[in-house]
Amino acid sequence: MPLSVPLLLVPGEPDRHYTVHLHRVFHWHTGAEGGPLTDVRRAELETRAREGLRTVSECIAAELASADVTVIEHPVGAEAVARVLCTEDLCAAVAEQYHRNADEDAEAEAARAWAATQLQDQSVDLLKLRAESEKARPGKTIAPQQEPRLRAVVAAAPMLDTVGELRALLEQLPDEMPLSLDDHHRALPGEPDQVHTVHPRLIAVVSGLATEAESKQPGLMLTQVYVPFPAEDEEQAAVAARDDLPAYGELPRAAYHLERGELRPGLKDVAEVLEELAHLVGEVAADFTEDDEDGSQLRVEAKRITHAAERVGKFADTVEEVAE
After folding, report:
1. Residue 165: left if φ>0, alpha if ψ -120 to 50, beta else—which one?
2. Is the pTM of this model over 0.85?
3. Rounded mean pLDDT of 74-82?
4. How far apart are CA 200 and CA 155, in angstroms?
5. Rounded to whole angstroms, how far apart are CA atoms 204 and 77?
6. What is the 3-state secondary structure (H, E, C) of 250-263?
């Protein structure tokens, strides 16, 4: 299999990520297929090295670019190394997650040294290849085969509490992935003491709805979640990752409960919403003079809303829950 080496720093271009994809093959002088390294065998060795690079999935550079091949002869045989420079951010993110062994570390250093001599000219060619590819497939989307890896990456970070943790997650995701924010904060009902965290979730995003170009791809949603405190990290992460948490707010929480037939908690939240509305209307009424007709009417409405809140609250104590 090919080895992919991330280039973490390119002088003068700190925002661009590069990766060296390489594949090494061997030819031995002994054995059934051995023998001296003739011109024909050298060409076959170079071809095998180039073809090995094409196993890098979804990489334009590995599939289309002309690889640089070096043949090194040894007393017992020869080896060919095919290398290509890639500018895809996704390839760099995947390469950074791979843990190399000692032999691969030495290979990585050689790859970085090679890249330093190739970067200036070859990067221009690769950018042209990428542009041509994107013309052929406008509206770049995430390939379905990437979804398991993306899901695993997101699941590995159930709570994001710092900018650094968020940055580390985003660096592993494709630049073209859609990003959205949850409409509500969420919390576990009945928890008296909670602290907030940010939970990332992979969702399905549909584009071009009801058209011939309709498509679905994974997107990232960020949700502010309140988790129990004090509690172990594992317990907090388990709460943050739940997909059934109601919204943290009386009105959306009331809708959450009522839609599920949970009348008592739903009506209690409705009563709290009415109390807040009565208080708000009462504050507005206080800005009017006693003799102002609008002010008088606002005070009447505030009292009516207060009475409605009291009635709903009492009803919540006696109502029968809807049977499941």
Report:
1. alpha
2. no
3. 81
4. 8
5. 52
6. HHHHHHHHHHCCCH
